[in-house]
Amino acid sequence: MPIKKLNIWKQYIAWKLIWVNVLVMLVVIWLVGVSVKDFACVLVAKYQLVGDVKNDFFGRTMQFYLIRASVLAIVVAAIIHFIFIKKILSPLKRLTESTRQLMEGSYPEPIQVTAEDEIGELTKRFNAMTLTLQRTEQNRKVMLSNVSHDLRTPLSNLNGYLEALSSGVIEGDRELYLSLLEESQHITRLVEQLHQLSLWEDRGADSMVFSRIPIDEFITRSLQSFQLELERKGITLEVSLEPHVIVSNEDGLRQVLTNLIQNAITYNSGHIVWISGVVAGEDYRITVCNLGEALSEELQELVFERFFQADGSRQRREGMKGSGLGLAIVKEIVGKLGGQVELTSDKDKHSFSITVPLKLGKN
After folding, report:
1. Which segments of the chain are extended strands (E)?
2. What is the CATH number that goes with domain 209-363?
3. By C-alpha distance, which of 271, 270, 269, 267 is closest to 231?
4. Whole-angstrom Cα distance, residue 289 to residue 351?
5. Domain extent listing, the chain
6. How many CA atoms lie within 13 Å of 219's alpha carbon, on the beta-carbon side?
7. Three-class SS string for 127-150?
């Protein structure tokens, strides 16, 4: 037990700082005191101000006061030092306790920032990290819940029909097989989009290939793949593109444009989709507009979240089997490319905008 008490300075940074400072003060005080004493003794001996007996008495007296002053200075300095060190290190103790709570699986309350020094900055970063971890955990739970919910209905339908077909309860026809194919394709799209989202989340800038892209021509080519669907649904495109060459990733931009245009077509309640592209400062802004159901301000803030669907029951009734991942993928890719996403709504007219830097490394 005594040995453990002697080693307490190894376990606590406060004691380490106290012992180091005490040692420094002791050395300084002792050197100064010894120097003053020796200098006084030399003066007394050199100029014979007192006799030998008094000279010895003077030396002992100087040594006594030196030791007493040194001990008193060390005790007072240690007390003051301990008070200030304890105040400085108290945030670190709170950080240690909060870290322990995180390791045990619970999320601690934010730590109050009481200083603007390095420890205060560390506390701010720790609070931000805790909040990010909490949000990530919540998103993970929501994502798992939404995935299971989104897969349950088509899988139940498939299992039910296949079981009935295998037992002879019902006989297959073209309409039934098309319905089963549609359910299967919905599951395939969902899994594929989850895979794409996962890939882009893990992708870093060093793994992406950037090239010079004539953005107006690139958008025009991307629209061509939707011509048949647009004609089938009787939707007209109004396109206005400002010519410009940007430096970006082709695969990412192609995926972004595909998702935005597909979203505008799928959820369009009118007969026109507007697409524009303009240079805005150091960015190129692409906007896709369509007419749809009115969205409240609260819902507008959620459209780029994973699995968001404004009215899932209406979509199922009308055959619009969206996964709720298309715009989430757009947000993820645009963020990786250094841009931003935005939605502005005016009643039933919705404008989805993205900005892409004109040059590599702008952001």
Report:
1. 211-214, 236-241, 245-248, 272-280, 283-291, 340-346, 349-357
2. 3.30.565.10
3. 271
4. 4
5. 2-103, 209-363
6. 24
7. HHHHHHHHHHHHHHHHHHHHHHHH
- Burial track 84-116 (b if 16+ CB lie within 10 A, e otherwise): ebeeebebeebbeebeeebeeeeebeebeeeee
The answer to whether the Cα torsion of 219, 220, 222, 226 is positive or negative is positive
Dihedral sign for Cα atoms in the order 224, 225, 230, 231? positive
User: How many Å separate Cα 145 from the centre of its chain?
Assistant: 22
Contacts of the segment 128-137: beta carbons below 8 A, 24+ positions apart: 130/98, 130/102, 133/102, 133/107, 134/107
Question: 193 near 332, Cβ under 8 Å?
Answer: no
* Residue 211 CB partners (closer than 8 Å, separation 6+): 247, 248, 249, 250
Helix, strand and coil percent figures for the chain, each rounded to 5: 65, 15, 25
**pLDDT 10s per residue in the chain (363 long)?**
454 544 544 455 556 666 666 676 666 666 666 666 666 666 556 555 555 666 666 666 666 666 776 677 777 777 776 777 777 777 778 888 888 888 887 888 888 877 777 777 888 888 888 888 887 777 777 666 666 766 777 788 788 888 888 887 787 788 888 878 877 877 887 777 777 777 777 776 667 888 999 999 999 998 988 988 888 889 999 999 999 999 998 988 998 998 899 888 988 888 899 999 999 989 999 999 998 888 777 777 777 776 666 554 444 444 445 566 778 888 888 988 889 999 888 888 889 999 999 887 555
Cβ-based burial of 204 (10 A; exposed 0-12, middle 13-18, buried ≥19): exposed
* pLDDT confidence of residue 246: 92
* Best CA proximity match to 196, nearest among 249, 259, 261, 250: 259
**Rounded CA separation 156/168 (Å):** 18
* Ranges assigned E (strand) in 174-314: 211-214, 236-241, 245-248, 272-280, 283-291
The DSSP call for residue 108 is: P
